[in-house]
């Protein structure tokens, strides 16, 4: 009886916050996009053979999204102690997401001829941008963990650069696209950024440093996309970095 009452009290205390719904929205993009192109084909036995590191990255990537939603839910349930305990686990998962993400980007670049895909350099840019932006914003979020509002905002902003693979796949499969929907993906990311900014403004009547930094990083990646991708220097960087890996 006591256990039942305790569980009921926890359920009554849970208040789904803005941060919780934002993490749910982000997770929906990831799991719907990869569900259509990875999880469902794997379950039906139609998934093409992939290097083991791709499956490892998918595991950590999925774990990060699940953990993000869980952490927001724990705050909504006022279980701060467990939230902090899982935070240490989250640092390990985030680190694995970074390194495996960088590795599969390099492996893709090495294994795919530049002429095989018209959007080869777009994919390379998105891969590198995700690693740099996520790593930077996640580090800032950890440094500001004692300032809960900034910590939560930076965690949301850090996850946004990880979303393009899921968003791209969702749009490509849903609308039968034979190209990379970069503009639609960026507009979707911008909508998430706008929602965060509106929340921050409505809550504090101003935009805090976390919102300004996160927005600057996300928008800078978008503004730099075309000039970087179309530059000869980026092609040289891709060639040098992808030659550092080899898989057969």
Summarize the structure in words.
There is one protein chain. The chain has 248 residues and is mainly α. The chain has helices at residues 2-13, 18-44, 52-76, 80-111, 120-143, 148-159, 164-174, 182-204, 209-229, 232-242. Helix 3 (52-76) runs antiparallel to helix 4 (80-111), helix 5 (120-143) runs antiparallel to helix 6 and helix 8 (182-204) packs antiparallel against helix 9 (209-229). The longest helix has 32 residues, at 80-111. The chain is globular. The N and C termini lie far apart (59 Å).
| Low-confidence runs | none
Helix content: over 70%
Number of helices: 10
| Strand percent estimate | under 5%
| Structural class computed from helices and strand pairing | mainly alpha
Looking at the structure, what is the overall shape?
Answer: globular
- Radius of gyration from the alpha-carbon trace, in angstroms: 19 Å
Helix and strand element order: HHHHHHHHHH
* Strand count: 0
Rounded mean pLDDT score? 92
Beginning-to-end CA distance, first to last residue: 59 Å
Give a short account of the largest sheet: none
């Amino acid at each position: 009886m006591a256990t039942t009452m305790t569980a009921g009290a926890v359920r009554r205390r849970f208040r789904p916050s803005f941060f919780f719904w934002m993490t749910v929205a982000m997770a929906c993009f990831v799991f719907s996009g990869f569900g259509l192109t990875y999880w469902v084909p794997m379950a039906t036995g139609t998934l093409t053979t992939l290097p083991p590191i791709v499956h490892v990255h998918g595991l950590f990537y999925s774990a990060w999204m699940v953990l993000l939603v869980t952490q927001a839910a724990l705050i909504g349930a006022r279980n701060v102690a467990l939230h902090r305990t899982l935070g240490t686990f989250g640092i390990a998962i985030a680190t694995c997401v970074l390194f495996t993400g960088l590795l599969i980007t390099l492996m893709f670049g090495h294994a795919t001829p530049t002429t095989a895909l018209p959007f080869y350099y777009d994919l390379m840019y998105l891969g590198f941008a995700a690693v740099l932006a996520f790593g930077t914003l996640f580090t800032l979020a950890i440094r500001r963990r004692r300032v809960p509002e900034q910590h939560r905002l930076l965690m949301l902003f850090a996850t946004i650069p990880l979303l393009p693979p899921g968003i791209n796949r969702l749009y490509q499969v849903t609308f039968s696209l034979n190209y990379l929907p970069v503009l639609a993906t960026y507009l979707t990311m911008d909508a998430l950024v706008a929602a965060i900014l509106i929340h921050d403004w409505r809550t504090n009547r101003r935009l805090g440093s976390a919102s300004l930094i996160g927005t600057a990083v996300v928008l800078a990646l978008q503004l730099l996309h075309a000039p970087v991708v179309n530059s000869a220097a980026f092609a040289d960087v891709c060639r040098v970095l992808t030659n550092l890996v080899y898989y057969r």
